Amino acid sequence: MIRLHPVPRPAELTDDKVKELTERYQREQHPVWNEKFIKDALLELSHGKCCYCECDVSSGGSYLEVEHFHPKSLYQNEVMLWENLLPACKRCNGHKSNHDTKQEPVIHPVQNAPQDHLSLKNYRLYSKTQLGEKTIEVLDLNDRARLVEKRFEIGDKLLTTLENLWLDLPELSEKQLGRKRKQLIALMREGTACYEYSATVATVILQDENYQKAKHWFIQKNLWNDELVNLENSLLEAILR
Q: Would you say the pTM of this structure is higher than 0.70?
């Protein structure tokens, strides 16, 4: 989970439209939020990912569900409030279900910084606060088959790549170092907000010994440029430590 930065309410979702759709839901108890303009804005908010587990909800087997942070079954007046709508995958939305987030709060990825409440160790999430603990429990964020094994798969591949990247680095020519730097840049981009499971990727990269050794080598060779500095800053925004 990463911190999401709010996007403006869609222009089509006027106050009158919110009122109309809310009243229709209260009368008919049928979904009124599956509008393309709503889903498009939510995908922009989360970079096409589930706001909780970071799986891709823009394509493939996972798909976007409009999630009501404060559940619609309990807070029908908030069913179309823009601040109450989030993009989620079917798994996370199903686990959160009717959990009363006002009585027992969980992390809201726009309003809270997940890294203040969660850490990642051995591909499992651990709580740093009561809010983090409740979030892990309600959303089952240590689901072994669906999440922990996926994080391990990602991390294992990253560690192998970083090991190979550092292995012969001190012996390379300046031209070859340039190619290695491009490889590192591509790897670090996968830990930025627009990629799946970016919190896992950022955490694995920044805590890896081979990454740190490669970074110091590039600095010594005056090859640690602004792009790498900016990428590392982006990863620091996502790391769960």
A: yes
